[in-house]
Amino acid sequence: MHDFGAKLREARERRGISLRQISTKTRISLAALEALERDDISRLPGGIFSRAIVRSYALEVGLAPDPTVEEFIERFNQETPPTAASVAATVPDIEREFETRRVRATRALIFAAIAVPVLLAVAVYLFLRSRA
User: Which of the four pLDDT bands, split at 50, 70 and 90, describes residue 1?
Assistant: First the structure.
């Protein structure tokens, strides 16, 4: 079984494209592309950037980008990107807490906006009444 980099290199060679052409078109450094073909992921930036490099490379050489990125993640034990479902499951708790705090702050401001003028009016009334 071929390694991941060899698979990419073979796809590139089948299309007659040089690494320099891919580098120029994608603006990915030649060193990063060479490292990718050698399976030397220590030379790649890591995380989402490595996946973006793999995706761009795959598109340029005619490979399906999503399966190629998935294979990259599996072969090199990269952290899988969060799915929309996993993000949606965590967001509501944060949003609910934020909304609760916002409502409390709004109520406190409304209370202060009403209470301060009323207290001032009462104080002025009592002051004027005591002078009379």
Answer: very low
The DSSP call for residue 41 is G
Half-sphere exposure of 73 toward its Cβ, with a 13 Å CA cutoff? Answer: 16
The CA-atom distances, in angstroms, between 57 and each of 28, 64, 73, 102 are 9, 10, 15, 46
Determine contact, residues 55/65, Cβ cutoff 8 Å: yes
Q: Are 43 and 32 in contact (CB under 8 A)?
A: yes
Q: b/e per residue, 63-77, with b = 16+ CB within 10 A?
A: beeeebbebbbeeee
**Residue 55 buriedness (CB in 10 A; 0-12 / 13-18 / 19+):** middle
What's the rounded Cα separation, in Å, for the pair 44 and 65?
18
Is the dihedral angle over the CA atoms 13, 16, 20, 26 positive or is it negative? negative
pTM of the model: 0.58
Name every residue whose Cβ is closer than 8 Å to that of residue 49 and which is 6 or more positions away in sequence. none
**How far is it, in rounded angstroms, from Cα 126 to Cα 97?**
43
